[in-house]
Amino acid sequence: MLLTFFQLLWCCSSLMLQFVEDDRAKCLDGTQGSYYFQKGSGEGQNKFIVFFEGGELILGNTEEEYLMNAVEKMQTQQGSSLNRASAFEFDGVLSQDKQENYYFHTWNLIHINYCDGVGFQGYKSDQVNYQQHFLYFRGELIIRSIFDHFMTKFQRAEIIILSGCSIGGVAALQWEQYLTSRVPENIPILFVPDSSILFDMQSIDGNNLLQQSLKIMNYIADDETQVPHSKCAYNYPNQNWKCLYFQNLINFIQRPVFIIQPFYDENFLYNYLDIKCIKDQTLENCQNSEMDFIELVYSKFNQIIKESLIQNSNIGSFVPSCISNCLFVSQLSFSRSWTIPEGSNRTAYQTLVKWVEKQKLNQNYQGDFGLIDQVPWPKNSACAELSLLSQFKLINIMLQVIIIILF
């Protein structure tokens, strides 16, 4: 009886794992694509959040290196559904905390798991055999299967938000045209890319790993298809990979967008630009040459975001000078000490909620919704203290493990 009670608690506070219906829609390793789902209730029963999980693209300067890294990724959760938990609790805007997540906690939640390696897109009918490992590039079929499964409900929705972290945020924008063309025009569809601004830049060692990886992806995974946003694809014939760069893709997005983007995106800096001095959410270990390079990246982020705000009144933003990634699914989105400007009450969560309310009323006024930190790291003290917070959490976890072992 007690076990049943706790099972019910787990069920009702967690998103449950589901598998896509299309047998062809496979992860890199050939397992079936998957997502977590929780049905909305009360006022949220006809409202939807579709969240594309964060992750990294397969990288490689040569086709050989690319396929080798693809094999490595297929053995992780970013390439397989094999070891997904049957249920999972998420933080931030996806949490079930009624007090902190007061606005979204009753909405339908669809968390699309990242397992295709190429950003929730791509299609190759035949598997790729690399050193006796069989790779599947079927990300497009996974998303089509999930969207088609929910399409009848989407067509009766009050509002739909597509969001995602890192490459997941790029995917949210990529699938805009597919969804909006199938849903009545009067239904608000909003986009919230988080830590998702990719742009063309050489890494600190002079290589352009991201660009080269995208080109290889283009002829391996997209040889039989094109990127989901066909308007962008049409504008870049034979160079569809350019549609994964934010400043290119954003020009084709017709619906409102709220950008969440840390100026010091640790995933972009570390994985794509090879800045390895970032540790424990601090730049204190970086040399002068590395800091100079990081400042160039900071300036580029600033330029892209400000140009987007100027060009489109439908765009809002929350851009802190923090070394972080994925605020949308983080407790930091609620933090009153984590605001723009520092010391105000403008948290990421509160700003997002107010922006959503304005968009539901079809009011295209940026006003207080184009928030950009005006000081670099570490002058936003709450961001600078993240390093100490991370170390404290690590110590706390270690103490808990020691207590469990001893007692």
Automatic annotation (TrEMBL):
Q: Please state the span of the N-terminal signal peptide per the UniProt entry.
A: 1-22
Per UniProt, which keywords does this protein have?
Signal
InterPro entries with a match to the protein in the record: PAE/NOTUM
- Recall the GO molecular function terms of this protein's record: hydrolase activity
Q: What name does UniProt use for this protein?
A: Pectin acetylesterase
Per the UniProt record, the source organism is: Paramecium octaurelia
